Amino acid sequence: MNARTEPQLLGQLSNRHLDALEEEAIFVLREVAAAFERPALLFSGGKDSLVLLKCAEKAFGAGRIPYPLLMIDTGHNFPEVTAFRDRRAAELRARLIVRSVEDSMKRGTVRLAHPGESRNAHQSVTLLEAIEEFRFDALIGGARRDEEKARAKERIFSHRDSFGQWQPKDQRPELWTLFNTRLQPGEHFRVFPISNWTELDVWQYIERERIVLPSIYYAHRRQVIERRGLLVPVTELTPPREGEAVVTRTVRFRTVGDITCTCPVASDAADAADVVRETLTVEVSERGATRMDDKTSDASMEKRKKDGYF
Predict the structure, then answer these.
(1) What are phi and psi of 230, to 5 degrees?
(2) Distance between CA 57 and CA 63 in Å, rounded?
(3) Widest CA span of the chain, in angstroms?
(4) What phi-psi label fits residue 186: left (phi over 0), alpha (psi between -120 and 50 degrees) or beta?
(5) Looking at the whole model, is its pTM more than 0.85?
(6) pLDDT for the residue 308
(7) Per-residue pLDDT for 269 more than 60?
């Protein structure tokens, strides 16, 4: 979460610390390539995974990323993001593996309580099936500690047992940037190279490196409904309920996920520099401001992570 900053301090913002954060991320990405036999980089086309991809380019060279990109697709993703994902992977000549929650539903391993249920939490099942299919021993993700309480508890190299589960009280120490990467058969690691970054760091890096993002990260006009303190986008998957008023607002997305649980925020930020200035003044974390699935309880994310979620 970023604290409120006085307007006069905006012009004094420095990005010199980004070099150290980038160096740490590159070190971790290279460590994964050296320590594991079958790693993959989780790639959604969102801002954090695009920052990771940029660091991977710097670590290994464009077109030489030594592990595939893996996307777990709910089938309810924003089309602007999936199209961008495919185009970016092709530009880098990277192998893109997509596994679908819908396929898990056809196999009967995922069962929805009702047709309108969000598929977001069910990605855990499809992810674990992909890990078993390809025998991945490390999955690199873009999660950050500032996003949510459960993620703040997690190590950079986060161990998962043979059931794909995370045990928050049984984590390995990471003193002096020494990582314990030993695995038993069937276990794997989730690795978070930008764990120590904040939302502000990410946007400063996007601005500095001129990283291109899907258009929905910047201000655009969209029909929304005000619901439970959030702006819910009006789509076929999230139609207005009886008595709800549809309004057109200028919004952007701070984070991008499944349409059924991801909300935009009111914003006029048209580019990365605008978003940096805006992020300096926000008082609610990006997930707290945009994710319906995290509002069920304070422990909702931790429970999902224990079950194998990202």
Answers:
(1) -120, 160
(2) 8
(3) 57
(4) left
(5) yes
(6) 52
(7) yes
